[in-house]
Automatic annotation (TrEMBL):
This is DUF3662 and FHA domain-containing protein. Residues 146-195 form the FHA domain. The keyword Phosphoprotein applies. InterPro entries: Cell_Proc_Reg/RNA_Proc, FHA_dom, FhaA_N, FhaA_N_sf, SMAD_FHA_dom_sf. The lineage of its organism: Bacteria, Bacillati, Actinomycetota, Actinomycetes, Micrococcales.
Length: 244
């Protein structure tokens, strides 16, 4: 399997699932991933033998009709794009000067099906944002713990009769995450293995009843900062995953 296949694999699964009915014509999400990959590859700058810098801020421009359809997906689409940019950068040993930001914008000059990428290399602080993806929706993980279950008191509520009212919780300490079953009736699985307590790696899949929950950690630009273009060699930093 080639790099492009690896880069698009995650979003192709989404398109084949919850997103499929949204896109009957026009621009497809996988075309955006391909355009972002090309942008990273063509803008990669060799700084030293062990450091290749790539853009971390992207503006994805498309026809207004395409933008309207993409916007219906909410933040889940952008989260997926950020995740795939991270993975492609890691596979190529690219580095970023700051958190990744992807902005989808309408452009009247573009026709339906077209996409253009504007990118820049911007230095700034990185906010490692843990999220749970459930049926195309994004749920940020609260620092401390986030309860998942069928009951209204849960932080992430599942419409799933196979889930207990307070089924499981995801704990996040700012760098690492783990999932703990809360004595549920049907149990909790991580990557297909039943568990009572397990560490969560990025892209781990939690299965509760019929629900598939994906744990992700996104490298995003920290809110409230005023980053400057990274032009000095000594200021170039690489970010991939939370500090160990």
């Amino acid at each position: 399997m080639g790099l492009l296949d690896n880069f698009e694999k995650g979003l192709e699964r989404a398109v084949n699932g919850a997103f499929a009915k949204t896109f009957r014509s026009g621009l497809q999400p996988v075309e955006i991933t391909a355009a972002l990959k090309r942008e990273l590859d063509t803008k990669a700058a060799v700084v030293s033998r062990d450091r290749v810098l790539v853009p971390n801020r992207f503006t994805v421009r498309m026809a207004p009709e395409d933008h309207e359809r993409m916007s219906r997906l909410g933040p889940a689409l952008v989260d997926e794009l950020v995740d795939l940019v991270q993975k492609h950068a890691a596979s190529q040993r690219f580095q970023f000067a700051g958190g990744i930001s992807i902005d989808l914008r309408p452009d009247e000059s573009l026709t339906v099906g077209m996409v253009q990428i504007d990118s820049s290399n911007v230095k700034g602080r990185v906010a490692w944002t843990p999220v749970l993806d459930v049926n195309g929706k994004r749920y940020p993980i609260l620092k401390g713990r986030t309860v998942i279950g069928r009951g209204s008191e849960a932080d992430v509520t599942l419409d799933d009769t196979g889930a207990s009212r307070r089924h499981a919780e995801v704990q996040w300490d700012g760098a690492r995450a783990r999932v703990r079953d809360l004595g549920s009736t049907n149990g909790t699985q991580v990557n297909g293995v039943k568990t009572a307590d397990a560490v969560l790696e990025p892209d781990a899949v939690i299965t509760i009843g019929r629900s598939r929950i994906v744990f992700r950690v996104l490298a995003e630009a920290q809110a409230g900062t005023s980053p400057q273009p990274a032009v000095q060699r000594d200021d170039l930093g690489g970010f991939w995953g939370p500090a160990q």
